[in-house]
Design goal:
Elements: E1 2-11, H1 16-20, E2 28-37, E3 40-43, E4 47-49, E5 55-58, E6 62-64, E7 73-82, H2 91-100, H3 105-117, H4 120-126, E8 136-143, E9 153-156, E10 158-159, E11 174-182, E12 191-201, E13 204-215, E14 218-222, H5 226-229, E15 236-239, E16 245-248, E17 260-263, E18 273-275
Antiparallel strand pairs: 1-5, 1-6, 1-11, 2-3, 2-4, 2-7, 7-8, 8-10, 9-11, 12-13, 13-14, 14-15, 16-17, 17-18
């Protein structure tokens, strides 16, 4: 089926002296998440975090396809301390200015020329002397099918590192998100074909040949496949869920040997339907 995760919220636990004392700029951090199921990997937007925030919020919606019921969704939080400048987006230009003063005169002239022309990409590609920004794994968690729910829910978060780490942020140790799973049977026909339905006519058992479709948690019963194309409502629509009782018959006539009964007792049904 499909699995989707959205509305990720990670609460922060600043000390009162840090959160309410806003004098000065303080440390700022660039934070993003990697979300993985098997070989499918998504990353969130990057957000800037400082002591004025109480939550790290990611608005991304990430949808995973062809997921097995036993999936493990691994969510990893990465952080990097931004000690220079107000925006990490401008890092290449600042870095180019900085290293232009510490390299040879010829290389410095190339960098100065590139800065003046705005062509930073070419000089950084041909002179790979600047190390990239390094992000560190700050926290992680694993979510499974049992964690999926339509509503917003809180999950545990394992925190890595400590206060001595440059990338460390004061996390509470949990995150909130919306994790939902959609079985493939909700969008595709899982099984189609003819079944015989046992009916009593004039006190005698009679078998009616019907075309059945198992889709979206229902066994939908038609007289012919053409009714589906004509968008005719099904003759019967039987819920198939965890409360449904399905039992093989296996006794009696040859028809009964290949029969099964369906009943949904929790929906108020008192009699089962027998198919063959």
């Amino acid at each position: 089926g499909k699995v989707a995760i959205s509305d990720i919220r990670i609460p922060l636990m600043w000390k009162d002296s840090d959160h309410f004392n806003n004098r000065g700029r303080g440390q700022r951090f660039a934070v993003f998440c990697l979300v993985k199921i098997g070989t499918q990997i998504f990353d969130t937007e990057m957000v800037t975090v400082d002591r004025t925030l109480t939550d790290i919020c990611f608005e991304n919606l990430m949808i995973f396809d062809d997921v097995k019921p036993g999936f493990e969704l691994r969510l990893e939080v990465y952080s990097c301390c931004m000690e220079e400048g107000p925006s990490i987006v401008n890092t290449p230009k600042r870095l180019a200015r900085k290293i232009s003063t510490s390299l040879s005169r010829a290389t410095g002239k190339k960098l100065t020329s590139a800065l003046e022309s705005g062509d930073l990409d070419s000089i950084l590609l041909t002179n790979p002397v600047a190390a990239g920004v390094k992000y560190h794994l700050l926290a992680e968690t694993i979510l499974k099918l049992d964690d999926a729910e339509a509503s917003f829910r809180t999950h545990g978060l394992s925190i890595l590192g400590n206060e001595e780490s440059s990338f460390w942020l004061p996390l509470y140790g949990n995150l909130c998100c919306r994790l939902v799973a959609q079985p493939a049977c909700m969008t595709t026909d899982m099984m189609t074909g003819y079944l015989n339905l046992e009916q009593t006519v004039g006190g005698l058992a009679n078998w009616t040949r019907l075309y059945c479709v198992l889709r979206r948690g229902y066994l939908m019963v038609y007289y012919t496949p053409e009714e589906i194309e004509a968008q005719v409502d099904p003759t019967l629509k039987i819920a198939i869920d965890k409360e449904t009782r399905i039992r093989t018959m296996g006794k009696g006539s040859a028809m009964k040997m290949y029969s099964f009964s369906l009943i949904n007792p929790y929906s108020g049904e008192t009699a089962s339907r027998v198919f063959s």
